[in-house]
Write a structure and sequence with these properties.
2 domains; Four Helix Bundle (Hemerythrin (Met), subunit A); Arc Repressor Mutant, subunit A; 262 residues; 12 helices; two-stranded antiparallel ribbon; mainly alpha; globular
Length: 262
């Protein structure tokens, strides 16, 4: 496809306007979760407990709280203009998901995991994302691939920017989450996508709380991996897509292990 043809498809699909916003389908739990992470409505629309949960989860996955840092219930309640009760309910839910640890009679803090646990997780996560990539390669449409290329172009633009105050790293995490989310949608298997989306949240958690520039030093490499993956999906090369995705995810786990042991 020539540049002119590609641009025409971008314009007709509405995907050339700066970024891709996924459409929310009510019966797809993974899309609901992703949409909530992109833009969280206020407490009147979500209910106070759900609002606090969504806001705290977003802050944790964006690295607002450091690993093992204590979460002050009263300060959070004041900041979000709610009582202590919805904050406690949200923390209990986040505890069940493994993002925070509640210590009875003491308080609640961001969870901490041993390097071996993180390695085991990425062994599992790489296989799950590999399955998604293979399904996407088998089932993707041309328009869906165009959407991936638009996001990849935005990631490419980051490689030319200075990472002042970590802004490039944060923007990359947002775009990377969106890219992987769209690939999960391209698998056209909502149950599998929802499960892997949850694993993706845990990966985001590890990256956000390790307190090290996991992506900043290798944006070009990550972009090249994404481009190779998109080409494999576009060419319906299932085996290649699976292998590229698996190695891409394992590399994240390896960098996290190096950061924790360094």
């Amino acid at each position: 496809m020539g540049d002119k043809d590609l641009r025409g498809k971008l314009e007709s699909s509405g995907l050339d306007r700066g970024h891709v916003e996924p459409k929310v389908i009510d019966n797809n739990p993974s899309k609901k979760n992703h949409a909530r992470r992109l833009s969280i409505p206020g407490p009147r629309r979500l209910g106070r407990a759900e609002f606090v949960y969504s806001r705290l989860k977003e802050q944790i996955l964006d690295g607002y709280f450091a690993r093992e840092s204590w979460l002050p219930v009263d300060a959070i309640a004041s900041d979000l203009d709610v009582s202590r009760q919805p904050v406690m309910e949200a923390l209990k839910r986040l505890s069940m998901e493994g993002f925070v640890t509640i210590i009875p009679q003491v308080g609640c803090r961001v969870s901490c995991y041993e390097p071996e646990e993180i390695k085991d997780f990425y062994d599992l996560f790489s296989e799950a994302e590999s399955l998604i990539a293979g399904l996407a390669a088998a089932r993707s449409t041309e328009d869906e691939v165009i959407g991936l290329r638009v996001i990849s172009e935005q990631i490419a633009s980051l490689t030319k920017q200075q990472n002042v105050d970590g802004k490039v790293s944060r923007r990359y995490r947002v775009l990377n989450r969106r890219l992987h989310f769209e690939i999960r949608e391209m698998a056209h298997s909502s149950t599998v996508a929802a499960v892997v989306e949850g694993l993706g949240d845990r990966s985001d958690f590890f990256v956000a709380t390790v307190n090290a520039p996991i992506f900043a030093s290798r944006l070009n490499t990550a972009h090249d991996e994404h481009e190779a993956l998109i080409d494999a999906i576009a060419g319906h090369r299932e085996h290649d897509a699976r292998e590229i995705m698996k190695n891409h995810i394992l590399a994240i786990g390896a960098r996290l292990g190096d950061a924790l042991s360094g």
